[in-house]
Specification:
The chain contains 14 helices and twelve strands. The chain folds into three domains: 10-54, lambda repressor-like DNA-binding domains (434 Repressor (Amino-terminal Domain)), CATH 1.10.260; 68-163, Response regulator (Rossmann fold, 3-Layer(aba) Sandwich); 167-304, Response regulator (Rossmann fold). Helices cover 42% and strands 14% of the residues. The chain is elongated. Helix 1 (10-17) packs across helix 2, helix 1 crosses helix 3 (36-49) and helix 6 crosses helix 14 (307-318). It has helices spanning 10-17, 21-29, 36-49, 56-63, 79-82, 84-100, 115-120, 137-144, 167-178, 212-227, 245-258, 270-279, 293-297, 307-318, and strands at 68-72, 103-107, 126-129, 149-152, 161-163, 185-189, 199-202, 236-239, 264-267, 285-287, 302-304, 331-333.
Length: 341
């Protein structure tokens, strides 16, 4: 076997360029401190020798920082690019990372027994965790690294920073709007727990739901139903495996099979609300959540919130800034979808 070629080092480049190793280091890490002619000479010598630059792992050891934020999704990796809420949230994180010279590492979990190891092995300075449950092992794994942890949407756990809106209050406001003249209301819901079972049921006690965002929105809808003198125990809830439109249409059909006469649907996001509008056989009052781009186009009553701003707040908090209070950073948007009689 041929002897493995020795790795080119910073000292090799320094000798070839006739400068000190410190000058080579500055060329890559602080180029503003090196004269243009010297910098060009160093880069030419590096290219000639095949030197790719400083070893990132060695740099991390030296400075005690990877300058990378980790985002723990709890979803399939494609969720980061397919789900409009996730896209907005990640864009806010990326904006802060770009401004501060940080990288961004997406850590998908929920696929197997190695989730904890995937989280703890991530070379990151801090974690941002997409909403999950209190008993999620990846949340415990992230906290166990003693690196900063910021949780979006919940749960609120000791040693981690929480960023998110008051989902219960927002759901109550939109619930009052969509159920105002209803006699047969229904809910199109996010998954209840990490099993992600899909079904239709009635009489859900929100306090038993592990996912905090789902729990709080169900509680808000229940509060609205009761304030309107309707019976929450009789309200059908269609629980979706995922929160995309295709799944929403499938579960909406199940809701209509359970109650063909339903006249109002509160959906936990805008894609699910659009699914309800498209599957409804006649006039049905429908509300969404998030005020995504298609909501205005389809006249959808919804709750507006900026997931981009919340993503930026999570990133800033992970980097040590005070976490702004986003609990009241939402507003009700009334449109034609709740004016159906």
């Amino acid at each position: 076997m041929r002897e493995r070629q020795r790795r080119v080092t910073m000292s090799d480049v320094a000798r070839a360029a006739g400068v000190s190793p410190m000058t080579v280091s500055y060329t890559y890490n602080r180029p503003q401190r090196v004269a243009a002619e010297t910098r060009e000479s160093v880069l030419e010598a590096a290219a000639r020798l095949g030197y790719a630059g400083p070893d990132p792992s060695a740099r991390s050891l030296r400075y005690g920082s990877t300058r990378t934020l980790g985002v723990v999704l709890g979803e399939h990796l494609t969720y980061a690019f397919d789900n409009p809420q996730a896209v907005e949230f990640l864009a806010g994180i990326a904006e802060v990372c770009a401004d501060r010279g940080y990288g961004l590492l997406i850590v998908p979990t929920g696929a197997g027994d190695d989730d904890r190891d995937r989280v703890t092995a991530a070379a990151v300075d801090a974690y941002i965790v997409w909403t999950t449950t209190e008993d999620d092992p990846v949340l415990a794994a992230a906290r166990g690294t003693r690196r900063p942890v910021v949780v979006h949407g919940g749960p609120a756990v000791e040693g981690a920073t929480l960023v998110g809106i008051d989902n219960r209050a927002a759901a109550y406001a939109v619930g009052r709007e969509v159920f105002a003249r209803a006699r047969r209301p229904a809910v199109l819901s996010f998954p209840l727990d990490r099993r992600r079972d899909s079904f239709v049921t009635t009489g859900i006690d929100p306090a038993t739901v592990p996912y905090p965002v789902t729990r709080d929105r169900l509680a808000g809808y229940r509060d609205a139903v009761r304030d309107l003198s309707l019976d929450w125990e009789r309200v059908p809830v269609g629980v979706c495996r995922t929160n995309d439109e295709a799944e929403g249409r499938r579960v909406m059909r199940l809701l209509l099979e359970a109650d063909p006469g339903l006249d109002a649907v509160a959906a936990m996001n805008d894609p699910l609300a659009l699914a309800a509008l498209r599957e409804a056989p006649g006039p049905v009052r429908v509300s969404g959540f998030d005020d995504a781009a298609p909501a205005a186009e389809h006249g959808l009553t919804t709750v507006a919130q900026s997931l981009r701003e919340q993503g930026a707040a999570c990133a800033a908090a992970a980097l040590g800034d005070p976490a702004p209070d986003h609990r009241n950073s939402w507003r009700l948007i009334r449109r034609a979808s709740t004016t159906v009689r």
